[in-house]
Amino acid sequence: MCRTEIFLGTNEEEWRKAQEIISNATIGIAGCGGIGGAMALRLARFGVKKLKLADPDNFDWSNINRQYGSSKDTIGLNKAETVGNLVYELAGDVDIEIYKDGITVENAKDFASGCDLILDQLDFYVVKEKFALHRAFRENQETKLILACSVVGWNAHLYKFEKDSMKIEDWYGINENTEKTPELTEKLIKLWSPKLPLFPTYEKITQWIEQTKAVPIFTGAPPLAEGILTQRVILSLINKEFPPYGKWLPPIPQMYIFDAGTLSGEIVTSDGNFKNKKELEILWSNYDK
Predict the structure, then answer these.
(1) CATH architecture of 5-176+216-270
(2) Mapping DSSP to helix (H, G, I), strand (E, B) and coil, where does residue 211 land?
């Protein structure tokens, strides 16, 4: 008997049925970076026997601070393929399908096909591919929902898309061919991260992004996101995301945000406005001198 089973229900019959559901599930992970790559390993440890992994990128030195599979020996190798090989080496009993081209408009339907659940770990600014993935999800009757988790500073943000919830196209409010500009990046940051971390100031974050052409990521945050996202995946698969066993996560435009620094968590509505900027401006004024 797996050490996990006792937590999957209230009696032995529920434990057995839950483990069967998990073992028979197919999970699609779009994006095998700091969170997606770790999720592939964690779900395999849970007993998931079929994974679809998609990522067009290769590992580089900047990934070593946080991404599962990244090391001096894997620099230049495809992320999805590398993570897939490492997961297979774990137990040798996981069926892994690799999409080295990542999610594309052309392959999104094929990727979603057969998936019970999809993890959308694509970068927030990859608009066309995200839209294609979500369209495929809505058209595919087999896929229950899309879950995602991102990090900002010490915070983890947990998101969910259901078949009848707000579409990502409506949440973004843009055309999929919209040109990527600083203004668009700021708009999407406000949607995906409606609560700012305590430090540094938002202005310093945006300056850093402009100078480095990358998004800053705190090394300790991806494991936090992996933990929160793992629990939600399992609860969703075994249909225990409701009282008395669990608590329902409302879909976008609402999300759950947990701050590991302040040990606080709450449901927040993402409407394109920062929820705590005024409070932080008072805090920042004491330090930004």
Answers:
(1) 3-Layer(aba) Sandwich (3.40)
(2) helix
Closest CA to 229 of 67, 5, 42: 42
Element (H or E) spanning 160, and its range? strand 155-161
Model confidence pLDDT, tens digit, residues 166-220: 999 999 999 999 988 888 988 998 999 999 888 888 888 888 888 887 778 889 9
Q: What are phi and psi of 11, to 5 degrees?
A: -155, 175
Q: Is 255 exposed, middle or buried (0-12, 13-18, 19+ CB in 10 A)?
A: buried
The identity of residue 214, as a single letter, is: A
Joined tokens for residue 95? 């069926």
**Cβ neighbours for 171, distance < 8 A, ≥ 6 positions apart:** 191, 252, 253, 270
Rounded to an integer, what is the distance from CA 130 to the centroid of its chain? 12
- The region, left, alpha or beta by phi > 0 then psi within -120 to 50, assigned to residue 179 is beta
Q: Are 166 and 257 within 8 A, CB to CB?
A: no
d(CA 97, CA 35): 18
CA atoms within 13 Å, Cβ hemisphere of 81: 11
CB contact at 8 A, 155 and 258: yes
Q: Residue 3: name the closest of 43, 46, 50 by CA.
A: 46
Both structure tokens of 47: 């007993």
pTM of the model: 0.94
Whether the CA torsion 154, 232, 26, 160 is positive or negative: it is negative
End-to-end CA distance of the chain: 59
Query: Looking only at Cα atoms, what is the longest distance across the chain?
Result: 62
